[in-house]
Amino acid sequence: MRKRVCGAGAVLGVLVTFGVAPAQAAEPPEPQPGRQAQAAADSARGLPLGLPGLKETRTTRTLQPGVTLTRIVRGGEDDAPRWTVEVSIPGGDTSPDPDAPPTALKDRASAEETAAELDADGFRARVEKVTTAKVADYAGGTLGWRVRVGSFATQAEAAAERARLVAAGHAGSAVHTGWDGAATDRGPWHIDVLTVDPRRFRGSLRASYGPDLENRETTSELADAAGAVAAVNAGFFVLDPRAGAPGDPAGVGVYGGRLLSEPVQGRPGVVVRDDGRRTEITRLSWRGQVTGVRGAALTLNGINRVPGLIRNCGGSPGDQPTSAPLHDVTCTNADEVVAFTPEYGRSTPRGEGSEAVLDARDRVVEVRSPRGGPLPAGGSSVQAIGLRAEELARVAHVGERLRVSAYLTDHHGRRVQPSPGTDILNGGPELVRDGQLHVTPATDGMVRPDDPSFYYGWVHKRNPRTLAGVDAAGRTVLVTADGRSTESLGLSIPESAAVARALGLRDAVNLDGGGSTTLVVDGDVLNDPSDAAGERPVGDALLILPGRR
Fold first, then answer.
1. Of 5, 115, 178, 203, which is least packed with CB atoms within 10 Å of its CB?
2. Secondary element (H or E) of residue 417
3. Residue 131 CB-density burial (10 A; 0-12 exposed, 13-18 middle, 19+ buried)
């Protein structure tokens, strides 16, 4: 059963349009007339999802002065049989790589070979070509070929066919064809939009990672702990212990003006201020070093993460397999220096290497090997592994100060100096820039030439999504879209961009989605998280706090 919008707040009614309010003097800059007119026109047509003319309702309520929540419901469930079994395609004798593991997409010859084997086993298989749209930095075109079996009215029927297929020695999954992203679909879609208008907002817009960085909490737990009126999940994070410390941001993390997690080099982040003004999407890089009192300095590779493991890659030269961004991949480097702050957790990661432990005044109180263990109250540390461990030993001396410095740079190479009221959360890809569609999966590491199935599942297909951006009137807009359900199909990444622009966003970025997508209002989870276990613990969340009374 879906969770419905409930709780306190005045219902304003069903809206026909989602317009952009005009700016006032000495407030966020007034939107350009052409863009404002385009946003109103897009809204009047409804969201660009599925067939034109689908029924769409928008219901808005005020959560607090300057904060509204709009629930958009578009389309309705399709009675046609929409379930099928998508077969995992082995490499096969005709594949360019016969030893490749089974995937959803392969070359045409491998797909036809698999279909022939299924036909011989008594299944009615079909081979389908998958093409994807061109975006700002990726040409699109043919991704590959998939193999599917049957068409069923219910998930249970598809699951039964999958069980029969598995018994015959094949592999696959039951999928709903409404998740494919066809423009002819009838829906439904359930999308929630939080809007923070800085002209009326008297609360605070803040990010929270919880008690420490290395553990995960649900969005609702983070909201409850801070007394938030509303919250959405935010950046990507480490989930698998083999990829680092679960909960650690997998990209930039600035909280209260402090850089607590380094960026994936060049990827975008959403910058928010506590007063709700000047929200922006910007691409970030960083530099850091460790300096001893005797003048020796070491280049810093990371902040508050397990040395040697770089989630989403985009780290330092020498990282394997790449130092460029590569989403949902953990790159490695045997020789690293990583700094830890008190916010990391009770104990730093244990393992081979060395660690300089600092007190609250940055004096070295211990150099330990192997590394890992508790920190002094208010203290910090620097860990080094591989060849870098010897370098740290030459710089860190008990009783002497060890200075750790790090700073962000924007895409122009200029220093970014966050104020104490500024938070920055990691995301990607970009969706909208300067009011135009600007989708950047290649730049942000979602394109894998040797693995089209990743792009197919992550970018091309519909999934739950969380988006953040700013509109032409300077309002911060947070969007969640439910997915992986027959009650809400979700959004592809290109659809996410189209929805963001239709909602009037001038700049927008994709945040963590899938099972992480969560919207909390007044202590209740209002959307329908897709994980079977319910709401997923996440790395951080973006909170809307009430104003002072």
1. 5
2. none
3. exposed
